[in-house]
Design brief:
transport, four-stranded antiparallel sheet, alpha/beta, ABC_transporter-like_ATP-bd, six-stranded mixed sheet, AAA+_ATPase, globular, binds adenosine-5'-triphosphate, single chain, about 270 residues
Length: about 270
């Protein structure tokens, strides 16, 4: 089957900073890819390039076999690539429902159908009772749920999510994890999810890619990547580190304390 996304030798620099260096991978339809890596390793730049916010310096992205080079984010959204951000980007003065409808301004969807889609998706993420409230009245975690529901409004084939679990209350995180799984399994949506919440990501994703200094340093199953010596070294900042990436949410070291210990890139 044709991959939903094919990325070949993608590179992106900001002046002297190499944010992406010959990044290549393919994403099968209906699967979840987890993207990990120390701070500054290029994860957000990769998402920004995939959804048309940044133009790559070189390399090619094909979505459902079609090159995306000259397409802008709203055009890619109409084709089926949607996106959430590290800090939820909701419109605070608009109501929850209006936030949902914003994603369809460029789409030819009848107003009644758009309203019904918004209602169903808000129910899906447990926000139905807040639909008439300004988004500013939602908690940070609820705003992440809203952003996720909004990303589904265009009936995407691929959703790019940047740190969906960061700073989210455990109950909301559990709901978000469940709904991402449901969207993948029942709607055949593919996901690329960037997260520092390693145990959650490892439980969700079929494949993990680890980046460091703009390059892919490991890819494979959650277990393969979490045990990969280069991955452990990248997080610890020295080769042959003894620590393991914790693979279970119930493991004694939480992901956040793990990252506090491990730090980012070695300087
Ligand atoms: N718009 C920009 N202008 C200049 N440099 C940038 C820009 N965006 C990213 N960078 C640089 O590119 C590199 C990769 O950054 P990026 O945000 O993609 O990393 P990341 O892996 O997402 O980090 P984090 O986990 O901290 O979010 C960093 O050195 C960053 O400072």
């Amino acid at each position: 089957m044709e991959p939903v996304l094919q990325v070949d030798s993608l590179s992106k620099r900001f002046g002297s900073i190499v944010a992406l260096e010959r990044v290549s991978f393919a994403l099968e339809a209906g699967t979840i890819l987890g993207l990990i890596g120390p701070n500054g390793s290029g994860k957000t730049t990769l998402l920004n390039t995939l959804n048309g916010l940044y133009r790559p310096d070189s390399g090619e992205i094909r979505y459902l076999g079609r090159p995306t080079r000259n397409l802008r984010p709203h055009q890619l959204a109409l084709l089926g690539i949607s996106r959430t951000f590290q800090n939820a980007r909701v419109f605070h003065t608009l109501t929850v429902t209006q936030n949902m409808l914003v994603s369809l301004v460029h789409a030819r969807v009848h107003s009644a159908e758009a309203q019904e889609r918004a209602r169903q998706l808000l129910t899906f993420v447990g926000l139905e009772r807040y639909q008439a409230l300004p988004a500013s009245e939602l908690s940070g975690g609820q705003q992440k749920l809203l952003e996720f529901a909004r990303a589904l409004m265009t009936e995407p084939r691929l959703v790019l999510m940047d740190e969906p679990f960061g700073g989210v209350h455990p109950e909301i995180k559990a709901l978000l994890l469940e709904r991402i799984r449901e969207a993948q399994q029942e709607r055949q949506v593919s996901f690329i999810i960037v997260s520092h919440e390693i145990p959650d990501l490892l439980s969700l994703a079929r494949t993990i890619i680890c980046m460091s200094y703009g390059r892919i340093i490991a890819r494979g199953s959650p277990q393969e990547v979490s045990e990969h010596p280069d991955v452990i070294a990248a997080y610890l900042g020295h080769a042959g580190g003894q620590a393991q990436i914790q693979t279970s949410p119930s493991s004694p070291v939480s992901s956040s304390s793990y990252f506090e210990q491990a730090g980012g890139h070695p300087s």
